[in-house]
Every structure is written in structure tokens, then in C-alpha cells.
């Protein structure tokens, strides 16, 4: 690879993007408007929503099952990891948590929803005709565990998803659509006549877009964090790392689509076909807990899912490098495969 040719293309692409004031402004303004809008929409602390985690299998056909689990208007969510679910109670992401095997439940002493649910739970005790609680059936008895922790607002939970979504759109359309436009306008045909190799051109496109995406992401993250007092429980270095790998995986998808496409209309359709299902099924706007298991498995195909889950684990749960390692490995494998296929299938014309 010739560094001078690579640098020349990289510099030209950066200048092209920076001089496009509308695109540059929109990349900064779009995520800030979304976060600010949702922060205002969900600023009411009196929203009546209840979510109860259940560790173990509920069998509502059993007569000894506690009647609380038949209560209407409460969303019971089956959880697989008890320790992580306890953290969610501390963060007010779960209003109450039950361990059916150990007959225990957890509430947050600072959660108004948890207080109401415990009153409902106590009031749903079956009529034992004067019997004391100690004489009640074992299946009806639960040991209380109280935890404390600061509330995680919806906007705190939303921010990692919005940043990842902005990365997705900027990477897909900033690489895929631009290269297709170059091909349609004959720019690639002219570059082919120069000593510039396909590898140098593609590397310049990837590095240019990665630098711009990460710069925008860092600025938006700092701005929204200061403006809305977003909590950060993990490492900034781990967060930066997973955003880099997530950006590369998104860029590689755009490169793969643009490898042979010559029509801007077709490229735009394919990019939208990929980006919108990815956005809705990757947990940007709502948690994937409680949706159909088939959709949860389908969401694992998208790199955006692993990017968002890893970023939220770092920011909200304080996950360390080992905890997010599965997300990092998955994003790395996806990036390498997609970049290799895109580079192999790339054509100038």
C-alpha cells in the first residue's frame, strides 16, 4: 500500500464530508433531538408502569401458586440470570423480582412502584381462616430482600441505542451510498486509470468514515451526558472500543452493498431494507425482553444488537472487559467477514 495515495484519498473524502454542511449538521443534530424529545416525553415520574421479574417457571394451573402471579395489568418477565436481575431492581429497571425456587423476592426501598407492588403482593395472600403466616403453605411464603440504588431513567437507557442507531445510518449511507454515487458519476472509472489500488481506495473510505463517525459520536455523547446528567457506571475505554468495532461492522455492511451496485435508487432501497428492520429489532427503542423468542434469536444476526447490548451493559451495569468480550468477539468476526467479502467482490465499474 502506498501511504501517499492512501492519504490523498482519505483527505479528499474528509473534505467532501466536512464541506457538506447539511449532512454534517444533521449527523450532530439528529441524535440530540431524539434524546431530548424522549427525555421530555418520559419526564413524568408518575407513569404507572409495573414490570416484575420471575426467576423460575410459573405454573398458574397449580393450586399452590401464589395468587399474586394471576394479578392483571402487571407484566411478568421470565429472567435467566438472577444476579443481573437484582442489579435491574437496584436500577429501577424491574419493580420487583421473585426467585420461585428459593421462595424469595427483592424490591427497591426507593422505588414507588416496588412499594405499590409489595402492598398488592401482601394483599393477595389467600384467606387462611385465621391461620398465621408461619402456618401458611410453603408455596405461599416468600422471604423479603430489600435493595437500594439510583433510578435509571428511560432517557439513560435510550442514549446508547440512539448513538448506535446514528452510527448505523452514518456508516451505511456514508459508505454504501457514496461509493455507488462515485460509480454512477464515473469517479471510480477515472480512479481506476490512476495508480490507486482498490485496497487503498477502500481503506481510505473505511478510515475516513470511521474517524468521522467516532468524532460525532464522542461529541454527541459528551453533550447529551452533560445536558441530561446521563450516568456512566463502566469504563469509557471499553465504551469507546465497542463503538469502534460496532462502527467498523456497520461500515463493512455498507461496503458490501456498494461493492457492485451501480444504481443509487437500488442501493438506497437495499440500505433502507437492512437499516430499518435492524433498528426496530435490535432494541433501540424498547427492551427485547418479553418479545417472541424467535425474534430475540433473529435480532442476534444484526451487529447493531450486539453494539447496543454491549454499550448498555457498560453504561448502566458497569460491565467490564470480560463481561463485554462476547459482544466484542462477535462484532470483530462480523467485521472481518463482511470486509473481506466486500473487498473481494468490489469492482470499479
Can you walk me through this structure?
The chain has 349 residues and is of the alpha/beta class. The chain folds into two domains: 3-41 and 153-345, no CATH class; 51-147, no CATH class. 62% of the residues lie in helices and 7% in strands. The protein has twelve helices and five strands. The protein has helices at residues 3-19, 21-41, 82-90, 112-123, 154-185, 187-192, 198-228, 236-258, 264-281, 293-299, 303-317, 321-345, and strands spanning 51-55, 75-78, 96-99, 104-108, 143-147. It has a five-stranded mixed sheet. Strand 3 and strand 4 (104-108) form a beta hairpin. Helix 5 packs antiparallel against helix 7. The chain is elongated and about 80 Å long. The two termini are 21 Å apart. The model is unreliable at 128-139 (pLDDT under 50).
Secondary-structure topology with pairs:
Layout: H1 3-19, H2 21-41, E1 51-55, E2 75-78, H3 82-90, E3 96-99, E4 104-108, H4 112-123, E5 143-147, H5 154-185, H6 187-192, H7 198-228, H8 236-258, H9 264-281, H10 293-299, H11 303-317, H12 321-345
Parallel strand pairs: 1-2, 1-3, 4-5
Antiparallel strand pairs: 3-4
Helix pairs in contact: 1-7, 2-5, 2-7, 5-7, 5-8, 5-9, 5-11, 7-8, 8-11, 8-12, 11-12
Amino acid at each position: 500500500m502506498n501511504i501517499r495515495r492512501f492519504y490523498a484519498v482519505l483527505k479528499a473524502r474528509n473534505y467532501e464530508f466536512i464541506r457538506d454542511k447539511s449532512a454534517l449538521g444533521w449527523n450532530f443534530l439528529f441524535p440530540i433531538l431524539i434524546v431530548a424529545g424522549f427525555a421530555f416525553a418520559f419526564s413524568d415520574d408518575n407513569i404507572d408502569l409495573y414490570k416484575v421479574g420471575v426467576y423460575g417457571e410459573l405454573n398458574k394451573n397449580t393450586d399452590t401458586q401464589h395468587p399474586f402471579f394471576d394479578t392483571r395489568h402487571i407484566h411478568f418477565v421470565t429472567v435467566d440470570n438472577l444476579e443481573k436481575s437484582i442489579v435491574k431492581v437496584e436500577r429501577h429497571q424491574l419493580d420487583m423480582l421473585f426467585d420461585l425456587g428459593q421462595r424469595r423476592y427483592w424490591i427497591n426501598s426507593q422505588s414507588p412502584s416496588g412499594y405499590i407492588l409489595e402492598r398488592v403482593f401482601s394483599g393477595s395472600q389467600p384467606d387462611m381462616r385465621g391461620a398465621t403466616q408461619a402456618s401458611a403453605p410453603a408455596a405461599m411464603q416468600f422471604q423479603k430482600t430489600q435493595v437500594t440504588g439510583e433510578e435509571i431513567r428511560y432517557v439513560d437507557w435510550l442514549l446508547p441505542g440512539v448513538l448506535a442507531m446514528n452510527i448505523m445510518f452514518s456508516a451505511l449511507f456514508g459508505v454504501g451510498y457514496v461509493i455507488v454515487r462515485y460509480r454512477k458519476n464515473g469517479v471510480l472509472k477515472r480512479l481506476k486509470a490512476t495508480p490507486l489500488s482498490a485496497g487503498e481506495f477502500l481503506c481510505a473510505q473505511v478510515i475516513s468514515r470511521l474517524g468521522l463517525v467516532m468524532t460525532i459520536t464522542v461529541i454527541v455523547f459528551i453533550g447529551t451526558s452533560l445536558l441530561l446528567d446521563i450516568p456512566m457506571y463502566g469504563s469509557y475505554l471499553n465504551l469507546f472500543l465497542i463503538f469502534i468495532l460496532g462502527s467498523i461492522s456497520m461500515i463493512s455492511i455498507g461496503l458490501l452493498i456498494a461493492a457492485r451496485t451501480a444504481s443509487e435508487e437500488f442501493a438506497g432501497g437495499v440500505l433502507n431494507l437492512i437499516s430499518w428492520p435492524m433498528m426496530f429489532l435490535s432494541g433501540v427503542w424498547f427492551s427485547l425482553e418479553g418479545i417472541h423468542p424467535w425474534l430475540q434469536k433473529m435480532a442476534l444476526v444484526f451487529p447493531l444488537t450486539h453494539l447496543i447490548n454491549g454499550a448498555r451493559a457498560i453504561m448502566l451495569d458497569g460491565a467490564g472487559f470480560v463481561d463485554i468480550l462476547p459482544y466484542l468477539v462477535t462484532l470483530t468476526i462480523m467485521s472481518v467477514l463482511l470486509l473481506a467479502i466486500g473487498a473481494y467482490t468490489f469492482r470499479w465499474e
